[in-house]
Amino acid sequence: MTEEFTKKAAEMLLKGATLLSEPCPYCAGVRVMQEGQALCVSCGRQPEKKEIPTPTTSNDTSNNTSPLEKIFEKKLESLSKELEQEKDHEKQQNILKTINTLLETMEKMKGKQ
Ligand SMILES: [Zn+2]
Known about the structure:
It is a single chain. By secondary structure, the protein is mainly α. It has one domain (3-47, 65-112). It is built from three helices and three strands, in the order αβββαα. Zinc ion (ZN) binds at residues 24, 26-27, 29, 40, 42-43, 45.
């Protein structure tokens, strides 16, 4: 039942959110931070709820290269680097979880198009 959290975290990452180095205080899961908001991708908890309007980027259907995919790829790249440098086993697991989440979301995005 983590799908909606996954989706939300992915949305935040797409809007330039960053991964938090501190794990979730509730479940020690990976959290993303955007505009002072932290969302746990594992349990979905966040300190406060605030609606962030989703900017509609483009209706251009002729362009097959999704800008979202590019952002995801960038995120994956930085996550991979993070993973490479991380020596803490627990943090490695968290990074792996996030990568997995990203990949799943990418798959879903591709399936929709
Ligand atoms: Zn959590």
